[in-house]
Design brief:
single chain, 272 residues, alpha/beta, 8-stranded mixed β-sheet, 13 helices, 41% helix
Length: 272
């Protein structure tokens, strides 16, 4: 097997990059693939919390790099019945604890066993960012439709392309259809015009995402969540399925209100 190593990055912190990593990784595993997610945010790990695996950590990424444990010992299997694993970041070391080539070698080894290796990249453009992108052959950039996040995403796109990671794809997170409709938030076309990259997914603002993160259960497990449906759709597109982007137009008709009242979402995973 020769798997795909994909870095999930952002210029600005707090835009939902780690949440995206957890949910896309889970979504790919739910599609039947063997997946490993690697937290490279050394010193500030959070991917384990989002996935609800923080109490299972014995070894971490730096332990593997330093030869203090076998690779298999650092991999934590997801709590659900899927072929999904986490390699957590070290919490008591700094980002200089590993070098780009070491992470590149590690991911090359993981590609022999896993269909997808997803790297949760630290925010910013310093050493942790350089480590994470060195190991990847593809990149997904997470942004929110805010001016500061868009500007930082533009900077990251330039850096990715300068290192050979051409044609990165964009995830626009936390879109509010109501704000877009009022003209108070940028829409998909606005962001596309500013960044000139392909959009692979649109994720609506959804309170279920916050609840899921607090519970340590990725929101893709919640069939009533519009954000969960969006992440499943992104996983499908990463996996090569040709499906349209999510329709985020505000639903104001009487049928939509009735569906919301009785908890019907219209089959979130089929057409979200």
């Amino acid at each position: 097997m020769t798997g795909r190593t994909i870095v999930i990055t952002s210029g600005k912190g707090g835009v939902g990059k780690t949440t995206a990593t957890a949910n896309i990784g889970t979504g790919l595993a739910m599609r039947g693939h063997k997946v490993v997610v690697v937290d490279t945010d050394i010193g500030l790990r959070n991917l384990d919390v989002i996935m609800g695996l923080e109490n299972r950590i014995v070894y971490d990424l730096v332990n593997v790099i330093d030869g203090e444990c076998k690779l298999s010992q650092a991999m934590i299997r997801d709590k659900h019945a899927y072929d999904l694993y986490l390699i957590p970041a070290a919490q008591t070391r700094d980002k200089n604890a590993i070098e780009p080539q070491q992470l590149r070698d590690l991911c090359a080894e993981l590609e022999k066993e896993f269909a997808y290796v997803l790297i949760d990249c630290p925010a910013g453009i310093e050493q942790g960012f350089k480590n994470a992108i060195a190991a990847a052959s593809e990149a997904l950039i997470v942004t929110t439709p805010e001016v500061s996040a868009i500007r930082d995403a533009d900077r990251v796109i330039g850096l990715l392309e300068s290192t050979g990671l051409h044609r990165p794809k964009l995830i626009i997170n936390r879109i509010s259809p109501e704000l877009v409709k009022r003209g108070d938030m940028m829409d998909q076309k606005d962001v596309e015009n500013l960044l000139a990259v392909e959009i692979i997914g649109l994720v609506p603002a959804d309170e279920h995402t916050v609840v899921a993160a607090n519970r340590g259960v990725p929101v893709v497990h919640n069939t009533k969540s519009s954000a969960g449906a969006a992440f499943m759709r992104i996983a499908a597109r990463v996996d090569g399925e040709n499906i349209p982007l999510m329709d985020l137009e505000p639903k104001t008709g009487i049928l939509s209100r009735i569906k919301e009242m009785v908890g019907i979402k219209g089959g979130a995973y089929s057409h979200a």
